[in-house]
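Quick note —
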Amino acid sequence: MTLMQPFRAWRPRPGLERRVAAPPYDVLDSEEARTLAAGIDESFLYVSKAEIALEPGVSARDPRVYAASERRFADMRAQGILLQDATPCFYVYRLEMNGHRQTGIAGLASVTAYREGRIKKHEHTRPDKEDDRTRLASTLRANSGPVFLIHPENPDIETLTERLIAAAAPVYDFLADDGIRHTLWVMGQSEMIRDLTAALDGVPAMYIADGHHRAAAAVRVANDIPEAGAGFLAVVFPTSQVRIMDYNRVVRDLNGMEEAEFLRRVGEGFRLRPADGPVAPNARHRFGMYLGGRWHHLEADLTAEQEADPLTRLDVSILQERLLAPLLGIANPRQETRIDFVGGRRGLEELTRRVDSGEMRVAFSLFPTGMDELMAVSDAGCVMPPKSTWFEPKLRDGLVVQTF
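Predicted structure written out below.
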């Protein structure tokens, strides 16, 4: 199999796309999903988070949830809410948010390329989340949520994409409730498919930006179910169009320290000075800290050797190794319940709110991880600390679905 291939997607019947398309399963809790899908029977949340169709309090891992998801997915196809394309196609998927635009290609990414490291990852997966997505895909016999990939710049891919956009009307073009615009074109012409397949296969590697659990689950399913084929659902974007947003931290307590002692110890590992207002770091190795109703600037110095290491030089690594672990006792942020993460558009106001409310004691704002940093870590075969990257806008579930 080449790096990416076309497929016969199940898609919303024209006119229903705005009602069907749903945020990714992992950006909403059950109650948020229940509220968002209320009164919208066509919502794909009844497939991706089917606990909302059951009584409140039912665990998302309850066997009844997978059965409900399977029933709803079958009903959506039987009722003509979802229709399948007659021939394999690529799909050009554009997202727009606050003036930012990114245009990618939806297709089937190669399982072999994932196994062999040509589709590269930068995160560990959690067994419980991977097991959940594996069970859902096996039950549905479908990959229902796309993996978000990025590829190095390739003018041939962009030329083919723009040629289709200029020649064909989109099949969907709608503004979601969160203000993000989603536009989809179908590429079914055999000559364009051939040329785009070759162009995509010409990139040296693709990188998982978001969706590590979905990718790992899809590969597990492909191992167990021959009909799953050799590819998994993905949308790939050029690196120049994709942006990573800041992914900040809030901590519940000061690990037994008073504020004065904590500030003194922070000053031993960082250059520390008070700020006049909220701190949105404007460069690498700079941080903001909100404590006791006041913001502070933190700056870290690295040696040349540390700067040369793709993991050590990450700001998320600096904060973890110099402050969160030694001072606050958070050795494993993946499992520690005293820390939480605030990403994307929620902004610094959410950090101050959570500290001022008394829920959390201290907050840290970070400069966003760079695309070059992500690729350097992936190329080195390393894994980033948890919650290092937040990509936005998010792909919607239900616009294109792969069955097997």
